[in-house]
Write a structure and sequence with these properties.
The protein is of the alpha/beta class. 40% of the residues lie in helices and 13% in strands. The structure holds pyridoxal-5'-phosphate. The site of pyridoxal-5'-phosphate (PLP) has 13 residues, from loops.
Length: 382
């Protein structure tokens, strides 16, 4: 158990809540979830499903209607042919990370992971006894990886590569050229798989989302992870999925039987509505995130000692705070305790996160402005 890590966002949230209990006013920019409510048509579909009897166990890999809707959605958006048998539904997308590592990675094997990156990957890599190999994402490269560095890490011990684009926490977006570098490295390697975390596929501000699964010859090697939490503001519903080879789907379904039995039935019916119903509410959320991005990025760049690149996707600002003279963990503690702003230190996302903070802008413009004023004042007083 000592090898298992965690997601610091939940720890900072607990600290912030404790301060609130003592009467302190805190602006929450630590947790990565849309502040919008789930669209009404999706909630209505869940209620309808409840009354229609979707209150029992269902198939471990997901109900057929949802697997079909997902197969259609991924086929259309990634321009590949996906069948329902290549889809597995889970309670949130996180179990896809957990189950894929358990199913495919053996102790001693190497897993390449973008760093800074979503912390659960590093945690799970260590948990299964594999070797965590960070692939640094550098600010000067728009938080994309260096192709030569990546190629240098492709030893014959590599079993898994984890990609995430648009990325949490940097907001970096991998280009088709970046994905081709990965594809070329594994074209002749039948022993290597890629987890492609595409959770933020719809939250992209410039250009189009590119999936490695779309590149020639890649589909069979990819475990594509996606879900409903971010695009449809459904974090509390716990609904996500993986798209992968049918034989691996069967293993993931077996892990589902051993852990959850199945994903909540009426939630899955809401998922069908999310994917097949009107998309305007989700588009409105993305437009709003785009506006907030302008506010937070220009505000951060106006604070002495802080600079911030514009993220191309997701809803996180990842400012460089080296000019403040503090390390990221001291600065995030200082901001929480002295300014009433909850943010995350960059090192919550791996060693290459030092020198940065992560601020979620899935919060109102009013709260973002309040946080910026408080941060500016606190940094001035350092
Ligand atoms: C990159 C990334 N992948 C996956 C997830 C997990 O999402 P879910 O709520 O579906 O488990 C998150 C949530 O923060 C995320 O940021």
């Amino acid at each position: 158990m000592d090898a298992l890590g965690t997601e610091t966002a939940f720890e900072v949230l607990a600290k912030a809540k404790a301060l609130e209990k003592k009467g302190k006013d805190i602006v929450h920019l630590e947790i990565g979830e849309p502040d919008f409510d789930t669209p009404k048509n999706i909630k209505e579909a869940a209620v309808k499903a409840l009354y229609a009897g979707y209150t029992h166990y269902v198939a471990a890999a997901g109900i057929p209607e949802l697997r079909e809707a997902i197969a259609e959605y991924i086929s259309k958006t990634r321009k590949i042919e996906v069948t329902p048998e290549e889809v597995v539904v889970t309670p949130g997308a996180k179990p896809i990370m957990f189950f894929s590592m358990l199913a495919l990675v053996n102790p001693g094997e190497e897993v390449l992971n973008l760093d800074p990156g979503f912390p659960i990957f590093e945690s799970l890599i260590n948990f299964v006894g594999a070797k965590y190999v960070p692939i640094p994402l550098k600010e000067e490269n728009d938080f994309r990886f260096d192709p030569e560095y990546f190629k240098g890490k492709m030893t014959d011990k590599v079993k898994m590569i984890v990609l995430n684009s648009p990325e949490n926490p940097t907001g970096g977006v991998l280009t088709r050229e970046d994905l081709k570098v990965v594809a070329d490295c594994i074209a002749n390697r039948d022993d290597v798989f890629v987890i492609s975390d595409e959770m933020y596929d719809n939250i992209i501000y410039e250009g189009e989302h590119e999936s490695i699964a779309s590149l020639p010859g890649m589909k069979e090697k990819i475990l594509l992870l996606d879900g409903f939490s971010k695009t449809y503001a459904m974090t509390g519903w716990r609904l996500g999925y993986g798209v992968m080879r049918k034989d691996i789907v069967e293993k993931i379904a077996q892990l589902m039987v051993n852990s959850n039995s199945c994903t909540c039935a009426f939630t899955q019916m809401a998922g069908v509505e999310a994917l097949t119903g009107p998309q305007d509410e989700s588009a409105k959320m993305v437009a709003e995130f785009k506006k907030r991005r302008e506010v937070i990025i220009s505000g951060l760049n106006n604070i002495e000692g802080i600079t911030c690149k514009k993220p191309r996707g997701a809803f996180y600002a990842f400012p460089n705070i080296t000019g403040t003279g503090m390390n990221c963990s001291s600065l995030s503690d200082y901001l929480l305790n002295n300014a009433g702003v909850a943010v995350l230190p960059g090192t919550s996302f791996g060693e290459y996160g030092e020198g940065y903070l992560r601020l979620s802008f899935a919060n109102s413009v009013e709260n973002i402005k309040k946080a910026l004023d408080r941060i500016a004042e606190a940094v001035k007083n350092l």
